[in-house]
Amino acid sequence: MPARREVQLEKCIDDATRKNNFQLLEQFLQTEDCDIISHKCSKQFFNKFDKLICRELDKQEVKNVSTLLNSLQKYGKNIIIPGGDGFPAMIKYGLVEKIIGWFEKAKEILIFRGNEKNEALTSLIEDFFDVLMLVHDTNSEGCKKT
Question: What dihedral do alpha carbons 84, 38, 86, 19 form, nearest 10°?
Fold first, then answer.
């Protein structure tokens, strides 16, 4: 059973990508104690995650982007990918630059929607800030780039 849990996060990301179904990921985020379990992911995980966030930003699916950022915030430190673990490995693979690109796309959504009072948009910005703080606190390279 533990081996199955290791790949669960990536399976949720794959499901969201292929079926445009974020329900499995949303349910996974509600699972207790999954944030203390290591999540062994493939070499392609980070690229899949980036492409999915970019796709959802392009479609202006703010709620889905927040869900993805929440999963990064909750599980990021326990993601094991070839070449390293957690945020230090993802920073090495360009996480900071990706976050900047994601934020630029999110900023376009905010500008486009103008003064619209929207809880989802507020939540999105808070989620970006939370992820940036985790990256900033991870190591000196994260601090220099943010």
Answer: 100
Are the C-beta atoms of 91 and 142 separated by less than 8 Å?
Answer: yes
Q: Which residues contact 102 (CB under 8 A, 6 or more apart)?
A: 53, 54, 57, 65, 128
pLDDT in tens, 16-69: 999 999 999 999 898 866 667 888 888 899 999 999 999 999 999 999 999 999
Interior/surface letters 104-121, b for 16+ CB within 10 angstroms, e for the rest: eebeebbeeeeeeeeeeb
The per-residue pLDDT for 114 is 72
